[in-house]
From TrEMBL:
Classification via InterPro entries: G_CP_dom (IPR030378), NA-bd_OB-fold (IPR012340), P-loop_NTPase (IPR027417), Ribosome_biogen_GTPase_RsgA (IPR004881), RsgA_GTPase_dom (IPR010914), RsgA_N (IPR031944)
A single MF term (Gene Ontology): rRNA binding
Protein name: Small ribosomal subunit biogenesis GTPase RsgA
Gene3D superfamilies attached to this UniProt entry: Nucleic acid-binding proteins, P-loop containing nucleotide triphosphate hydrolases, Probable gtpase engc, domain 3
Known partners and oligomeric status: Monomer. Associates with 30S ribosomal subunit, binds 16S rRNA.
Pfam (any one): RsgA_GTPase
Enzyme Commission identifier(s): 3.6.1.-
UniProt entry keywords in alphabetical sequence: Cytoplasm, GTP-binding, Hydrolase, Metal-binding, Nucleotide-binding, Ribosome biogenesis, RNA-binding, rRNA-binding, Zinc
Length: 294
């Protein structure tokens, strides 16, 4: 009996496609997973067995470093966050929600602004000025897929995943980055200013030495499991500045000699960024999603 280790790249009608050094093996999961109430996920590193009749079975899930989203992707090393300039409209609040969520999940993020050709010059300039702040605090920002050079950035076996609001253009971007992906794209609902889910499943596409995942869009991100006192840690510039606060546990609200509030007063922190921090704290404190996301 032959054994191999690989990465689950797709789920199809109860079968798991596993990328191994020798190619893709279509496998069945052993019954032991049902007994343990475990389920393999796209992105999982797994062990498979191939019996003497050539049948392949998934027999073990190796330890995960994370599991993100619904449907989920496991072992994500980097998120390529797609934010649209228009249709749906650019939203700083949504951008900050995503960045907070992925910081909480300890996953690096790069930002891609889509649909720049559909917005007028004045509005695009305004959006780019806002995104320049995010670039200043450490996030890579792209508007041109050709300048990403993802194939050279993906390390061996690394998994990058696309994320973003429905209709933001994730599948369109994937088709540009991976021309044989052939992902369906959809139109925007004008009444709701949101896109239809064109991606119905999670699938990994081989890109360079690693993988790129397309996922169904997020209609809402639940931040309520985050601890209120840790929220500031997921705003990267707040965390860096907190060393200069008088109080070690400073929450950057009403405390004296707060380095974050001082920088805010000097316009060195984007006002909307701080407002979103307060809104997210309120959401966590109340334990429910804001009305506009329900």
């Amino acid at each position: 009996m032959e054994q191999a280790t690989g990465t689950v790249i797709g789920l199809i009608a109860g079968y798991y496609d596993v990328q191994t050094p020798k190619g893709v093996e279509r496998t069945r999961a052993r019954g032991v997973f049902r007994k343990k109430k475990e389920k393999p996920t796209v992105g999982d590193r797994v062990e498979i067995q191939i019996d003497d009749q050539g049948m392949s079975y998934l027999v073990k899930i190796l330890p995960r470093k994370n599991r993100i989203g619904r449907p989920a992707v496991a072992n994500v090393s980097h998120v390529l966050l797609v934010i649209s300039a228009v249709e749906p409209d650019f939203s700083v609040a949504l951008l900050d929600r995503f960045l907070t969520f992925f910081a909480w999940q300890k996953v690096k993020v790069s930002i891609y602004l889509s649909k720049t050709d559909l917005v007028d010059t004045a509005k695009l300039t305004e959006i780019k000025e806002i995104l320049a702040y995010y670039q200043k605090i450490g996030y890579a920002v792209f508007t041109d897929p050709s300048k990403m050079k993802l194939e050279t950035q993906l390390g061996a076996g690394e998994i990058w995943t696309l994320a973003g609001q429905s209709g933001a253009g994730k599948s369109t971007l994937l088709n540009k980055l991976k021309r044989d992906a052939n992902q369906a794209t959809g139109e925007i609902s004008q009444s709701l200013n949101r896109g239809r889910h064109t991606t119905r499943k999670v699938e990994l596409f081989k890109l360079g030495a690693g993988f790129l995942a397309d996922t169904p869009g997020f209609s809402a991100i639940d931040l309520t499991p985050i601890k209120l006192t840790e929220t500031a840690d997921y705003f990267v510039e707040f965390k860096q500045l907190s060393a200069g606060c008088k109080f070690r546990s400073c929450q950057h609200i009403n405390e004296p000699k707060c380095a974050v509030k001082e920088q805010l007063a000097e316009n060195k922190i984007l006002p909307s960024r701080y407002e979103d921090y307060l809104a997210i704290r309120e959401e966590i404190s109340e334990g429910r999603l804001p009305e506009y996301l329900k």
